[in-house]
């Protein structure tokens, strides 16, 4: 545990009521939107559930793209709300293809909503968002994007892409707290949400948030907002803005390239072979047959740098190196690669650590 003054987290001043609107506007600027940005006072998976619960209704037809357990959950919440859900599953652990989405949309009439995850931290993939956004637009469908992992690490231009609802968590690419999340909501999406039969008086109700905060002039938030979370969010936004969002994204790209080059030079096998289909947040390797990622991730060297097994169907064969947010740095990438080298070597796999370090350095200094 790093040394820090946890007592400084106590007795914080309340977050000022006028501050929430400013935070929302700063998030809107980071993700390129003029749409409303609202807060859900919980981790991002709750914001996703709120969006599905508020949008879903009998008669709504959704194309739900599943590339990880998050997409799977989202489809389940839509169904629970009464929606008809057409599920499009990518190959386990891989991005969906544009062709598969085009085919699914061509074969279905009256799709009201297309939902997908942008970049996956579960497997390290990136879905082809601009192409899918174009297809959704042609169909006149609402587009919901889980950008929890990608915000801050990948280009995310909400209005240019025509994203109706983007769900954001500060805790990944933006390097902020995990206990607060945000959604951007387009006028069209509000129309679809603000119905007489939509759930009310619930933490999952986006209409509650609209009535109680947006329509009330964006002052104080409902309940007892966590000062801890909002102060931390403000600090995270300060840090991202000081660096500049474009520079932060470029840093993630560099971390991704360094991790990929280093792991390849090491002799490891990258799970996502095309850089353009890989997330800039985590880099994933496919372990040789017979090795178990969950076991390797328990090795002290792996724990020390936060290596983890994949999530989902192919999880036990995938080892993930996290270079998200402040971890998108040369030191973190190098430490991660050294840890991968150590656990692989001790598992009997030949590795070339010197070549790996040279590859990282070459990328970081170029
Ligand atoms: C991390 C993440 C979430 C939300 O996770 P929480 O830990 O609940 O905040 C949702 N979707 C994706 C793609 C994620 O990477």
From TrEMBL:
SUPFAM superfamilies: PLP-dependent transferases
Domain (Aminotransferase class V) ranges: 23-314
Cofactor(s) named in the record: pyridoxal 5'-phosphate
GO molecular function, one term: L-serine-pyruvate transaminase activity
Gene3D superfamilies: Aspartate Aminotransferase, domain 1 (3.90.1150.10), Type I PLP-dependent aspartate aminotransferase-like (Major domain) (3.40.640.10)
Keyword terms: Aminotransferase, Pyridoxal phosphate, Transferase
Binding-site residues, substrate: 320
Superkingdom per UniProt: Bacteria
One GO-annotated biological process of the protein: glycine biosynthetic process, by transamination of glyoxylate
PANTHER family: ALANINE--GLYOXYLATE AMINOTRANSFERASE 1 (PTHR21152:SF24), AMINOTRANSFERASE CLASS V (PTHR21152)
Family of this protein: Belongs to the class-V pyridoxal-phosphate-dependent aminotransferase family.
Record's protein name: Aspartate aminotransferase-like enzyme
